[in-house]
Structures are given as structure tokens and as C-alpha cells.
Amino acid sequence: MLKLINKFLNPKSKVPKSISGFLKCASKKQKDKIIIKVARKANADQRALVEKYDKMFPKTT
Q1: Alpha-carbon span 2 to 6, nearest angstrom
Q2: How far, in Å, CA of 23 to CA of 43, rounded?
């Protein structure tokens, strides 16, 4: 999971296909953790990406 987050945070790498797959099957708790971690380190572009993915894969309550 950490590798995926680091890959996602690496500005040179495009968002890996696996992140979308991961977000699809991730639990709400895991998604929240990832989004918090990414948001802490992310620049504005990356934060926008996270928000976009968050909208694409709404959290299940």
C-alpha cells in the first residue's frame, strides 16, 4: 500500500492504473488514510487528482 501511495505522490509518475483499481476495492478507512496521506504531501495538482478520484469512487457508508 505504501508503494502505491509513494508512486502516486511521485510527480513524475502518471497516476497508476492500480490506484483506481485500489480505490475501487479499498475500504472507507483505507481510502481516508490514503487521501489524508496524499493530501499532506501533495501539491495542488495532486490534491485535485485525489479529489477527482474521490468523486469517481464515492465512499461507501
Answers
A1: 6
A2: 20
